[in-house]
Write a structure and sequence with these properties.
This protein is of the alpha/beta class.
Length: 795
């Protein structure tokens, strides 16, 4: 819809501006949910929509940003979801009068999703569906999912939107470091969301147009759908006692022109903008035509942080095979007991060895495969940043894995049987995944090249029939063991060539199967690997720890023309140090260093082993000072350098909790004394507390006692608690523009009654300059900075 509209009109589509900050600018104050104004103050809401239409907006957003069950429940309005959303849609449609499209605005739930939080993916989908069902009844033109800081939440919202049949677009909110709060990259977000069917992708809020340019540039480089930019009017400042934004309409619109030149074709305004901004924006962008060019790459899979490109002539992509209990009695036994630590070890080892993707198979008789798959993928995603292949013949397990994985996955696999085609392909389509097509069917294993090709053609035909592009299908021509099917190796190689030549698909093989039951398996595997690469193999599924694998691949890529200028081959040309096992590694460093390394990497299991060993000779205080404190400092430094992101911070914090639990077991009551009390609260009128909760977790794991008053907290409650607990440092959070006034009032009240109390503030809408002007002692740009402030206060 969006693409065709842009091509038809041949102009940049103008989106509307802010709702919340414009309400305050107009003097319309509200207590509680701003979405309730659709009912209590409908005429004013409609007038704002009319102003934006008159200013030239092609698309207006309904006043429903927080009208989902979770957000409305904060105000006791969860039972009015339908009423509030339908009222908002009616007002927007009345104002548009057919001159502008009406989009249902859908914001985040305010909850942390798994694996970092407790809200499940399916619960999030259900909540979003409740809101989006009103889009069907209200007959909106499209759904806008906006201001998302968790890619998994954006995925959940998009799935809910897809169930309505109404086109949906998605915009994420990025910080100055080019990542979302959870460390998602713009490129990964664009790939995942467009693959799931988003009609357009982009960014909104948090940043002004100048700071959003590199984000839009990154999105455009991978996006095959139109790109959206809806920046703030700069950042808030205090002017004559009022909160205003520091970028005027003229400057804002000129900077937005740069966004258009970087490829944004739908542009509007977020916090701090008003109809004057949209009017000027319309004027300045009028001469421009939308950039409809799309990037030229064959295909890509990704995690939320790492992209892996693939194509017929690009370097070979290695899929690590070792997370598979088949033939592994110890791994099978561990999975039966619910112990996934061996899986974590395999994931880390394969990632360290250089695998580009990891295959995940947890199929063991007698376990709940779907539940185990979800648990394993949630855990692996916190440990490594590689894309994953969800490997199962069980459709429920595949769906569980695809739900859990915050990225674009590869499904392993669908085969040519009717049952498999009917069950697996719809899941691939639903989640925007790629899929391996296994060339076997109800008849069993293929006997020759012709049978393999026939089944491959059937799989591709069925995939394309439900909207899965041919490029998203990776054909597996089957590797049978040479020990019992010696003649089939040649048939497999012939089939690889034909699939590439006749079908134009990428190919994969389980390389290690060729040597099953034979001696000297390594030489057989590497020889077959080289032959298969020469025949057109693109994604070998193989043991990346096996000696010679990467040497073979690098040399084959060089000789097959997949490594232009021999760049990768020359980069890897150095004496290989074979992968040493964990036991050998542990002999090379003392136990204190092992504990430090375990905390940094989030290895909870080994961290508990190492601290138990250290407790034989050291006091808890010595362990804290020599291992825990240095480890947390290193994690913080990596975060500052952009090497680590929030998930790694939280994982290290969780690991420290496990270490403390072991210390408590051996020496009850001897854990580090509190380094000081910190009171945290989200100010009155603001119901967002994800950021505050992250600060709380990090403070606790750095030895501080935290008094958490929650969200939407009156200043009287904060002052009373601070007095009762003799608090020296208070941390206040404000995420919404509309809560900045409350933040300033809270600070003034605290300063008047608790002159010795220090205040640090944080939130997406704040700057250090603004924090200083409203009387805060410290500004925490992120959670780690909050910890550093506390350390300075209590040192």
């Amino acid at each position: 819809m969006i693409d065709s509209l842009l091509r038809k009109r041949k102009k940049i589509l103008i989106l509307d501006g802010a709702m919340g900050s414009y309400l305050l600018e107009k003097g319309i104050e509200f207590k509680g949910a701003p979405e309730l104004l659709n009912i209590t103050c409908g005429m004013k809401i409609r007038e704002i929509h009319e102003e934006y239409v008159e200013a030239g907006a092609d698309i207006i957003y309904t006043n429903t940003f927080g009208a989902n069950p979770f957000k409305l429940s904060e105000f006791g309005l969860h039972y009015r979801v339908k009423e509030i959303n339908l009222a908002a849609i009616t007002l927007a449609k009345q104002a548009s009068k057919g001159k502008a499209l009406v989009a249902l605005s859908v914001g985040p739930t305010g909850q942390l999703l798994e694996p970092m939080g407790s809200l499940s993916f399916n619960e999030a989908v259900k909540a979003f569906k409740t809101q989006m069902e009103t889009a069907v009844e209200g007959k909106v033109d499209l759904i806008v999912i906006e201001t998302m800081t968790q890619l998994n939440e954006a995925r959940a919202a998009l799935l809910a939107a897809q169930s309505t049949g109404i086109p949906a677009v998605v915009t994420m909110s990025f910080e100055e470091n080019g990542r979302t709060l959870m460390g998602d990259t713009p490129e990964a977000a664009a790939v995942v969301l467009q693959s799931m069917g988003a009609a357009a992708v982009g960014a909104n809020c948090s940043l002004g147009p100048d700071k959003l340019v590199p984000v839009i540039d990154a999105i455009k480089k991978v996006s095959k759908v139109p790109v959206i930019a809806k920046p703030n009017a700069g950042m808030p400042i205090l002017k004559n006692g009022k909160t205003v934004y520091n970028t005027e309409p003229e400057k804002f619109s000129i900077q937005c022109r740069d966004l258009a030149l970087k490829g944004a074709s739908l542009i509007g305004g977020c916090c701090g903008t008003n109809p004057d901004y949209i009017r000027k924006l319309k004027s300045i962008l009028k001469p421009l035509t939308p950039d409809m060019n799309t990037p030229d790459y064959f295909n890509v899979v990704c995690s939320n942080r790492k992209l892996v490109f693939m194509g017929p002539d690009t370097p070979t992509v290695v899929i690590g095979e070792r997370i598979n209990p088949t033939g592994k009695s110890k791994l099978s036994a561990a999975l039966k007991k619910g112990d996934i630590n061996p899986v974590i070890d395999e994931a880390k080892n394969q990632a360290d060895a250089g695998a580009h993707m990891l295959d995940v198979n947890v199929s063991v008789a007698g376990i709940d495969e779907a539940s185990t798959m979800r648990k394993v993928i949630n855990t692996i995603s916190k440990i490594v940043d590689l894309p994953l292949s969800v490997d199962s013949s069980n459709a429920e397990a595949i769906e569980a894995g695809l739900s859990a994985f915050c990225g674009r996955a590869l499904v392993n696999s669908v085969n040519g049987s009717e049952e498999s085609l009917n069950k697996v392909l719809p899941l691939v389509k639903k989640f925007g995944a790629m899929v391996i097509g296994l060339t076997m069917d109800e008849s069993g294993l293929p006997k020759n090249t012709s049978e393999r090709l026939t089944i491959a053609e059937r799989i591709i035909e069925r995939a394309e029939a439900i909207g899965i592009p041919r490029k998203d299908v990776v054909i597996d021509c089957l590797t049978l063991t040479a020990g019992t099917h010696q003649n089939q190796a040649v048939e497999t190689l012939k089939a690889l060539k034909l699939v590439r030549e006749k079908l134009g698909c990428l190919t994969t093989l389980g390389i290690s199967n060729i040597s099953y039951g034979l001696p000297n398996r390594g030489i057989i595997n590497n020889t077959f690997l080289a032959m298969a690469l020469g025949a057109g193999l693109n994604l070998p599924i193989i043991n990346p720890l096996e000696k010679g694998v990467f040497e073979t691949i690098k040399a084959a890529d060089l000789l097959n023309g997949r490594d232009p200028g021999a760049k990768l081959f020359l980069m890897s040309y150095k004496p290989r140090q074979d992968k040493i096992n964990d036991t050998e590694f542990h002999k090379e460093s003392n136990t204190t260093q092992k504990l430090i390394d375990s905390i940094i990497s989030g290895d909870k299991k080994n961290a508990q082993v190492f601290v138990t060993d250290l407790l034989k000779d050291k006091s808890p205080f010595d362990i804290i000072e020599s291992a825990i404190v240095p480890a947390l400092k290193d994690v913080g430094d990596k975060y500052e350098r952009g090497e680590f992101f929030l998930p790694q911070l939280m994982l290290a914090a969780e690991t420290v909790q496990h270490v403390f639990s072991k210390i408590k077991e051996k020496f009850p009551g001897s854990v580090m004394k509190s380094r000081g009390k910190v009171l945290l609260a989200t100010v009155k009128g603001d119901i967002h507390d994800i950021g505050k909760n992250i600060v709380k977790a990090l403070l606790q794991n750095h030895g501080f006692e935290v008094i958490d008053l929650g969200k939407d907290v009156p200043h009287e409650t904060i002052i009373k608690s601070a007095k009762e607990n003799k608090v020296k440092l208070i941390g206040l959070s404000a995420l919404m523009t509309t809560s900045l006034i409350s933040l300033e009032k809270t600070i003034n009240a605290i300063k008047n009654q608790l002159s010795d109390c220090l205040i640090m503030v944080g939130g997406a809408v704040l700057t250090s300059e603004y924090a200083k002007k409203i009387g805060a002692d410290f500004y925490a740009k992120d959670a780690m900075e909050g910890v550093k402030i506390a350390q300075r206060v209590f040192r």
